Amino acid sequence: MHRRLWMAAAALMMVAGTAAGCGGPTEPAPGSAASCTAPELRWTEPTARAGDDVLLEGAHLLTGCDDTGADGTQDGDAAPLTGLTVTLLTDGAPYEPQPEQPQPFTAEPDGTFRAQMFVPDVDPGTELEVEMTADDGAVVRSDVLTVVE
């Protein structure tokens, strides 16, 4: 009986040790890196007042890049996102009325975007974000800009 208990305990320790080794984050192999960086939109300032113009910058707004190569694309095959429309969000909901803007547009050939965005007349503490949607369905949301007094 003791032998069975000992064998069961040893088996449990083996399973626990294996699970602990598999459950942690994995580190990339030295010298490896993703060939495609996720698209991003960032305000150049973390805060602004109502009525200010604030620069919004985008980077890596590209499509057609596949890290695995499974679809046959290579790094140089990435193209700028097209058919981009922009929605201004206040506290996570679409702001009404939306600011006038030339739409749809295409990111620059290198996947960048720069635009001055007008901060609407909203209460201090309101969080502004921009959501950009491409014609292929890709959606990129900016970081938060907080409106101050």
TrEMBL record:
<keyword id="KW-0732">Signal</keyword>
<feature type="signal peptide">
    <location>
        <begin position="1"/>
        <end position="21"/>
    </location>
</feature>
<protein>
    <recommendedName>
        <fullName>Bacterial spore germination immunoglobulin-like domain-containing protein</fullName>
    </recommendedName>
</protein>
